[in-house]
Structures are given as structure tokens and as C-alpha cells.
TrEMBL record:
GO terms for cellular component: membrane. This is Cation diffusion facilitator family transporter. The keyword Lyase does not apply. Its main location: membrane. It is found in: Membrane. Signal peptide: none annotated. Coiled coil: none annotated. GO terms for molecular function: monoatomic cation transmembrane transporter activity. Residues 11-204 form the Cation efflux protein transmembrane domain. PANTHER family: MITOCHONDRIAL METAL TRANSPORTER 1-RELATED. The lineage of its organism: Bacteria, Pseudomonadati, Bacteroidota, Cytophagia, Cytophagales.
């Protein structure tokens, strides 16, 4: 299975799970008198739309390079991630406003069965977080990382709801608002996760060169190619699930242009073979005389 197809299947897995959970949360919240669960359901609905955006971003970014986009369409991924963050912020604001309204207007105590529902939701969401996060690391996908943090924020929201409902149930009359304060508390975590999603996407759009491990690997692989005496500049840019590299390779100054050209091609082929997540690799040949020590 291709990297793109695996990413798409992962998003579909998330989306179907969120649809099912949204229905469960709304029904349990309505019949169980729990606004924290209804707020949780609102977040799951937003997550479904966010997953659709991520799905679109992954499919678009998987398009091959063309005349107008010689580096491919990978930048669509972080741009879609920005939209996902906007969706999360909107859902956090909605939850906060509705929770505030419920604090002002008293309501009935939540039903005990809502705790069982929440326990199942927390376990499922945490498992989903680890599954999607593992695949995001495997595929180097910013959009999938955002998708994973959606699951984690949902799990945290559910934990807050669980605590709030427990306090309300055992505290009895007068503690109904514990459920609503739990929803407000969850909003803080949602906004924090927004930052964790936004920062890597911004780094990708701004072409920040902060890939130390990959740079070291590129330099080490380069030295295994016959004719390469060392490397100088190594600039890396991430676009979608690929890394584009500009590398200066040191070769003997006595070589002909043709010989240097052939070395650069062997080096590029070797890098792409050993590090399959590399996209466009530009090799600049530098003449070198002397010792690297």
C-alpha cells in the first residue's frame, strides 16, 4: 500500500469513528442530562468536518509535480491543517458559550449511566490517538498529526466530562454545574492542542530548516558514494509527506565536469534509495582539495 493510500485510510478510520461517537455522545447527553457530553458531541461533529478537510488535503497533496508546481502539491497539507485549527477554535468557543449559559440556568443532575458511556469513549479515543500518531510519524504527515491530536483533545474533553459528572452525581443537588465547569475546563485543553497542531504546520509553510537527524543521515549516506569526499550546506524543506533537499557535495577539483555530474546523479539516486521519504534532491558539486580533518 502506498504512503498516500495509508494516510487516506487512516483519516477514513478517524472519520467513521467520530461519526459513531458523535451520535453516541448526543444521545447519552440528551437522555442523561449531561451538557458536558453534548459539548463532547459538538467537538466530534467538528472533528468529522475537520477529517473531511484533512482527507481533501491528503488527496490534493498526493498529486504529482507539474509545470506550475515543480515541487509537488505537498504544501496543501499544512494549509488544510490551519483550517482544522480554525474549526477547533470555533468548537471550543461554542462549547464555552453553551457551558456558560447552562451555569446561569440550572438544570437536572446527570444520569449515572453517562459515566459508563464516557469510560468507553475515553478508551477508544486514546487508542485512536496512538494509532493515528504512529502513522503520522511513519508517513511524516502534518495533517495526520493534527488528526491524532483531535483524538487526544477529544479524550481529554471526555476525561473532564467524566470528572464533572462524577462530582455532580455524588455531590447531589447544587452540584449540577460541575458538569458545565468540566466543559469549560476542557476548552483550555482544546485551545492548547490547537497550538500544538498549528506550530509544526507553520514551521512547514515557513520552510524552517530544523531537521537535525535527517541532515545527519543525509551526510552519512553521502559519504558512502564513491567520489564524494564530504558535504557542506544541507537545506531541507518539508512539503506534505516528503522532504526536499539542497545539498552541496565536495568532490576532487581535478575531476571533469562530466565526472562531477555523474557523481551528483549517483549521490541523488543513493539518497532517494536509502531515504524513501525524500522528494526533490538538488545536488551542487563543490571542488575540494586537501583534508577534511
Amino acid at each position: 500500500m502506498s504512503r498516500s493510500n495509508l494516510a487516506i485510510r487512516t483519516v477514513i478510520f478517524s472519520m467513521l469513528g467520530n461519526i459513531a461517537l458523535a451520535i453516541i455522545k448526543f444521545l447519552a447527553g440528551i437522555f442523561g442530562n449531561s451538557y458536558a457530553l453534548i459539548a463532547d458531541g459538538i467537538e466530534s461533529v467538528v472533528d468529522v468536518f475537520a477529517s473531511l478537510l484533512v482527507l481533501f488535503g491528503l488527496k490534493y497533496s498526493a498529486r504529482p509535480a507539474d509545470e506550475n508546481h515543480p515541487y509537488g502539491h505537498g504544501k496543501a497539507e499544512p494549509l488544510v491543517t490551519f483550517l482544522v485549527v480554525v474549526f477547533l477554535i470555533i468548537s471550543a468557543g461554542t462549547i464555552a458559550w453553551q457551558a456558560y449559559q447552562h451555569i446561569i440556568i440550572p438544570h437536572e443532575l446527570p444520569k449515572p449511566f453517562t459515566l459508563i458511556v464516557l469510560a468507553g469513549i475515553i478508551i477508544w479515543k486514546e487508542l485512536s490517538f496512538h494509532i493515528v500518531m504512529q502513522r503520522s510519524k511513519k508517513l511524516n504527515s502534518t495533517a495526520l498529526r493534527a488528526e491524532a491530536w483531535h483524538h487526544r483533545s477529544d479524550a481529554i474533553t471526555s476525561v473532564a466530562a467524566f470528572i464533572g459528572i462524577t462530582i455532580a452525581i455524588f455531590g447531589g443537588k447544587g452540584f449540577e454545574v460541575a458538569d458545565d465547569y468540566a466543559a469549560l475546563f476542557a476548552v483550555i485543553f482544546i485551545l492548547y492542542n490547537c497550538y500544538k497542531i498549528f506550530r509544526p504546520a507553520l514551521s512547514e509553510v515557513m520552510d524552517e530548516n530544523n531537521y537535525e537527524e535527517l541532515t545527519l543521515q543525509i551526510r552519512q549516506v553521502s559519504l558512502t558514494v564513491t567520489g564524494v569526499k564530504g558535504t557542506e550546506k544541507c537545506y531541507i524543506r518539508k512539503a506534505g509527506m516528503e522532504y526536499h533537499v539542497d545539498l552541496h557535495a565536495l568532490v576532487s577539483g581535478e575531476l571533469t565536469v562530466t565526472e562531477g555530474h555523474n557523481i551528483s546523479h549517483r549521490l541523488k539516486d543513493k539518497l532517494c534509495e536509502v531515504i524513501p521519504e525524500l522528494g526533490n534532491v538538488l545536488i551542487h558539486i563543490e571542488p575540494f582539495e586537501g583534508s577534511l580533518e
